[in-house]
Automatic annotation (TrEMBL):
This is Zinc ribbon domain-containing protein. Residues 318-343 have a biased composition (Pro residues). Residues 290-372 are annotated as: Disordered. It comes from the Bacteria.
Length: 372
């Protein structure tokens, strides 16, 4: 296990009723559903937690769904107005991803928080989806509000034999799936080995979806999960199979971190990767010489989190045992033996980019940061 940096102190919270997938082991973001009859009941537990974290010298990164933004923003305004300390200790980050992906990303951020500055943690929610394949298999898209549905797709949705694949990341895409097709078309595939998280109200639908997508993804480790409480609201359908496919490569998370180009905020000095600082709101000019990770690969590598066992999570074991490449590589391997870093090619397709032998890091691309 790599050593954490005691100066990197941040806590990740998720402002929505989105339970954990338990896929990142014990690393779980704190959840706040923001329900109650009064603002104090809705926002009081969050305020108490923020005060405790700020008192301990930690900053808070609050992740919330962009499609349920108003309640979360009201909670952040309430908390910032009630704090006795400066307001640059809480960062609100909205992300337009479905519930299952949001749940996994929040827990990944919690796992990474001890190794990274708070500003980088706040920037990663916009980078991590580009290294995943997220979406849902749907029977109807007539109530799908977050996708551009064509008139033909809308009319086909009323056919009892219609099937659609809605992909949210690495790029938004909606396509009809023919019943006689041997595979489900996807825009990109994560770097091997691939792990697939699947959730649906009906377990029979999960088995059918896995049989349809396996010719495309190949043999992958699969974990069926219970449905997310907000999934039906997001997908606008009672019948759906929500999925997230991620890479279990030992350097998958490191590759995402290396794509972040951060600069020091001119006001609060926090490393940030967006023009507007998510903590203090100051507008910054993104420099051509960003803050870079240390050159030594052994200090850059973030250890891969171990998913829970089947006994701990109640999930079925993977269809295929994880390959030996799951094991962490040596602390300082020679450049010729270093595995390739996963990255995103133009158009959202995932590729493997060789490391630069002189620095041990890939050539970073511009970040895809949204509004924090």
């Amino acid at each position: 296990m790599a050593q954490t940096n005691p100066g990197f102190e941040s806590t990740v919270v998720l402002l929505a009723n989105i339970p954990s997938t338990d896929h990142v082991g014990s690393a779980k973001a704190l959840r706040f559903p923001l329900t109650g009859d009064s603002p104090l009941h809705r926002y009081g537990p969050l305020l108490e937690l923020v005060r405790e974290e700020v008192g301990a010298g930690r900053k808070v990164v609050a992740l919330y769904p962009a499609w349920r933004a108003e309640t979360a923003r009201s909670a952040l305004r309430f908390v910032r107005g009630a704090l006795d300390s400066p307001s640059d200790v809480v960062a609100g980050v909205s992300l337009d991803q479905p519930p299952l992906a949001l749940s996994l990303i929040a827990d990944q951020l919690t796992y990474l928080a001890p190794y990274l500055p708070p500003g980088i943690v706040a920037a990663l929610p916009h980078e991590l989806p580009g290294h995943m394949l997220t979406g849902a298999w749907l029977r109807k898209v007539s109530n799908l509000s977050d996708f551009p549905v064509s008139l033909r797709q809308h009319m086909r949705s009323y056919s009892p034999r219609s099937q659609f694949l809605a992909v949210c990341a690495p790029g938004q895409e909606l396509s009809e799936v023919r019943r006689d097709s041997t595979a489900i078309p996807i825009p990109a595939r994560p770097v091997d080995p691939v792990q697939l998280l699947v959730a649906a109200p009906n377990s029979g639908d999960i088995a059918t979806f896995q049989a349809r997508i396996q010719p495309t993804l190949g043999q992958v480790g699969s974990r069926p999960l219970g449905p997310q409480p907000l999934a039906q609201e997001y997908w606008g359908a009672a019948q759906y199979v929500e999925f997230v496919a991620i890479s279990a490569h030992p350097q998958a998370l490191t590759g995402a971190i290396n794509n972040i180009r951060a600069v020091a905020c001119a006001w609060c000095h926090e490393p940030v990767a967006a023009q507007s600082c998510p903590f203090c709101g100051a507008v910054n000019r993104l420099s051509a010489t960003p803050i870079r990770p240390p050159a030594d690969p052994s200090t850059r590598r973030v250890p891969l989190p171990e998913p829970p066992t089947a006994a701990e999570s109640g999930a079925q074991p993977p269809a295929t045992p994880p390959p030996e490449s799951h094991a962490a590589p040596p602390a300082s391997p020679p450049p010729a033996q270093t595995p390739p870093e996963p990255s995103i090619a133009p158009g959202g397709r995932i590729r493997s980019q060789p490391l630069d032998p002189s620095t041990g890091a890939p050539d970073p691309s511009l970040p895809r940061n949204g509004d924090a």
